[in-house]
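dude i think i finally got it to work??
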Amino acid sequence: MAHETSYVIQGFLRQPTKEAARRYLGIGEGSDDAGTVTEADLNLSDITTANSTAAQHGLLPKLSGNSTDVLKGDGTFGGIAGGGDVTGPASSTDSHVALFNGATGKIIKDTGIASTQIPTAGENDALVGTNGVPSAANPFVTDSDPRNTNARTPSGAAGGVLSGTYPSPGFAVDMATQAELDAVGTVVLDHSARHENGGADEMNVAGLGGVLADPQTPAAHAATHSNASSDPVTITNLAGFPGGTATFLRADATFAAPPAGGAGNVGTATLNFGAFPGASDTSLAITGQSGIVAGSVVDAWIRPVATAEHSADEHWVESVKIVAGNIVAGVGFTIYGRTQDKVRLYGNWSVAWNWS
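look at this
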């Protein structure tokens, strides 16, 4: 050798001689003395002595030839093992958002929502009312929208029961005005006052029929024959009154004994037409009749017994129609009462009933 030269081969030798390096790498004597090593100069046999390890630097291990392998920390080549066991549908739509399906955390599903439907950051701000006035670029109504606070005059064609255009449509059909409704209400409320003695439209005997049409002084007559007056009208004064307790006054103004039946098949009650001005009809359910059947015969009639609102005499002279029906087998039936003229009744009225 013409001269000795020291080489540093990292990870193998420190300051070896050129000759020693040649021997270690298997380079022949004829190699370039300038230090150039060609591929032909190298001994590339399948040895692993100089491979890199966890303890020292070294050569790259021999490649596996598989494009899916990677070099691992233990110096070997291999694929990366997948983890988890998440499953999903057999197919999905590109760019759709996925959600968990159930509570296992292992199943996902297609929501049907495209990623383009997810609000942007600005749109999310708008949803909580912090992104200004809505516009073509910001189609969300926010707290700052002036339409939430300012008055807006309606416009366009009216419909339904209205006709014309806003802001001043009219009625499409004939409708009562408020003034007309108020006038009707006043007439209804004022009805009794208008027809009473001294009223604007006082009733007189000329407008009555039957025995009430006989000339008389209404005020004096009522006072004379009212309850506790000088000449009260009593049941015993009525034509056809038979006396005794075995008969009742029926709705057809006749006295008759109730149909045959057990003691539990007869009773009395009161029909309530409500507080003044009352109503034109009312009803009362009679229950507790366990022996009644669908084919039973039921009857009810006015009973001339005073109530808190009406005297026994009023029960006789008032035009009240009493009927019974609507049998519920094993339960009872219903008593119905209604006025026979256009004047409403009020308060409680005594009735009697029976069935067989």
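The longest helix spans residues 178-189.
im so relieved honestly
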